[in-house]
## 1
Amino acid sequence: MGRTFRLRKRKSRKNVVLSSDPSFVNLTQWMSKRGWKQTTSLCLAKFKDTGRGLMARCNIEQGDVLVSIPRSLLITTATVVESPVGCAFSRVTLTPNNFLCQEILACFLLWEKHLGNTSIWANYLETLPKSFSIPHCLDKSHINSFPWFLQEQALNSIELVQSCFMHLIPSFKDYVCNHCQLSALDIFVWDDFLWAWCCVNTRAVFIDPENVPSHPIPLRDRNCLALAPYLDMFNHSDAVEVKVGLNKNNNCYEIVTLQPVKKFNEVFINYGPHSNTKLFLEYGFVLPRNVHDTIPIDFNQLKEVFSETGITIPNEYDKRKFCERHGLITQLYLSKGGLSWNCLTVLKILLCCSNNHKYWQEISFKGESSEKICDNSFKIVKEGIFRKISKDLLKSHNLIFGECSHSCCTFWQEGKRHPTVEMCRVLIHRLKSILTSASLVDDCGQT
């Protein structure tokens, strides 16, 4: 029995080819009829570590084009203008706030979804996820249990989605669908809009605004987002290098790999140099080993550490203004290598006893000053930062995963943790590993 269980478990962890998946087959057939050609032999697969992704059916060489999507198959704001819902957008000229690019694309997906099989994008819509693991899908009460830096960014994201939704309602209150005769107010419901927003948030690619035709819809941000069928099935890895952009010779959006991929391996692309915090907030996943991973630190946190350790900050107001003017308030973080340069520099300035800006400038430009800083105070404050981060992560972990009856806890769904909460658990675990590594580096530096 034990051997059978182990064999079953081992078998369940194998990669599974999904090339006959109906939605995938329908998508590629639909795209082929519209001018798409497969440039590299890839197939849909379920991978034991990353879930659904694309597998190489043959060896891929450096410089090969992984995918080439005709511009006519990209969904941009220009695509929206030419659609029925685009007419409604174009009519709105007196809105107090212009539209966001993401808001327009989300509205388009929502509208096409309500059309069902009559939508020309139905085969693409069928491949989109039904649910997501980004914080947008959680209640604010859940997010309040997250570490402070996740709370702030997640709540800001949720408020943005809600404001965009409320912005759309009055703009479309008189618009009626010619297909089903439903009013836009019956179509634009919150749950569907949130789903569409998450689709754009997790799957849109960057496109140079110069490659998007001009249109009458008033925008308040850069017109640089596009949805690309098939391309959004690639998973992210920070270990790969690719070249992405519109090939003006064939009018296709292409991804070129800058390194080879072996047959039967997963083919990754690179979403950018994002930390796990960024990946969790924007895409709903984290990497097991992320070279860009950091724990953000806020200036107010540094002040709290000084207060907790009983160390005063001479001329605090002037020093803060000095740090702000010289851009030192940004890029405050902890990585596996320790505190960032800016963070260390700010600490030294705050500990400096001199009122002379000359000494502060020496610290900001050279990392040191002729004005002596107490090594013991510097050590105490650094240790206080580590303790504060550790305490914050432990508090969040206990709030989310402390003792509770999951039968009545909204962190659970059908006997399992909510996928977003479970991903947050993984993130907190990764952040703890950063803290452990940084502590070891700091200990070695002091010996």
## 2
Amino acid sequence: MAQVISVLEPENKKLQKLINEMPVARHTIERRISAIIADILNNLQTNLSKCLAVSLALDESTDIKDMPQLVIFVRYVSKDLEVVEELLNLVTLKNTTRGYDIKEALDGVLQKNAVPIGNIVSIATDGAPSMTGTKQKLIGLLKADISYPDFLPVHCIIHREHLAAKYFQYPHSMQIVLKIMAINKQCSWQFFELLDPIKKFMEEKGKSFPELNEPQWLLDLAFFTDVVQYLQTLNKSLQGKEKLISDLAQIVFGFHNKLKLFTKDLQTKTFAHFKCLKKISESFPDIPVETEEYMNKISGLAEEINRRFNDLRSLNTGVSPVGGFSFHVF
């Protein structure tokens, strides 16, 4: 506590003195922590009971003891038209994680925290089988429950991006990379940048990997590295708090449009957007770079993204009747 005050109120010596003189008995600390928790929970429940619109985000996973856990985040518009997001609860589920189990846990949390169910405008899930699908799954059960309004179900955008990225694979390159990483774990995912030191290290160890000197294998590795770096940047840009669904959709579709530019870059063999590929191609000027396979890979990735995110295009005109807010707020 003293450290917190020293940061928040560095000039308030009187307050710091009072904090330092406070008793630090275990039971005293426990009571104060409980009082802080109760105050935070009371404020959250009060604000939720008066909010104009609510959005939920659900994620079901298991802990280190293999116990299923349901985490519930809430984002709401307060009466002062302020958008707030909080962790609402972390619930331990029963031994089964059926749609009924998740709905029962969700109903209990919403009722306990005075969440106005009628003001729910969207519910985001991780896309697990128990969450989406038939009437026996969570979303189907919520849709069938007349106490819930006609909310907008949303599949987690980051999860979708991860599934789309799994399409882009180069197993013949990764098999060699993983074998070398098993020998030298320090090379990690900076493999391409450490290519020359890795070659030297393998020679010193007496390990033979002829692929490290094969132009076509190196070209494939370079192309794979370039695209993976773009996918990693996309993933990071989707993370963080206070991200609106409209912003996330714009990021995804912006990347989708960028893939068209990548295809043209590969077609002209300029490689302005593929620095690793350009580096290897310049190292072997007498070796022609066949880019047709690379263009097909980019095209397939674009189709995968379009397939998994196509429903987001219909959100552009969705408007909530509550205060004229667009669904994009959530």
## 3
Amino acid sequence: MNILFGVIGLTCLVAGTPLLYFLHISGIEKITPWPTEDEWVVLLASGIFGTVISDYLCLYASALTGSLTASLSFTLSIPFSMIADVLFRHRPPTSLQIIAAIPIVLSFVGAALLGRSMASSTNVVTGIGKLNAGDIEMKSDFERENLIHAVYDKDDEDDDEESRNLV
């Protein structure tokens, strides 16, 4: 994941800087002066809270709940922004916005209830031991792949042993 962000940043730097300079010279997009001190504070705060902390919390939420629940929770920002508009800007949502928010909230609640019921009622028995379904979801892709290989490798060893006993 880190290499992806690095490649995106390098591409923006190498391709974006000359493109921005060309757009400035041609008059299509004028480069404004450097930000003031107050604007730098806002930019840094936005970068720290809007990017660094939010990415950390996103990855932490994925580790705690699973990728589906964490991804669906991001869609809740739409209904929450509507609530914030009502509380802070005194702008009530339109009927179309309310209708659009209903499936978003229902999908999150449904996925959370489904994930909770699956984690509490389903057990997976492997050669390594007994794991809840929620425990498997919390594993990384690499660990999940190794768990699957461990189960299948144990089955293959049992099959090889049975075939040796037949001969």
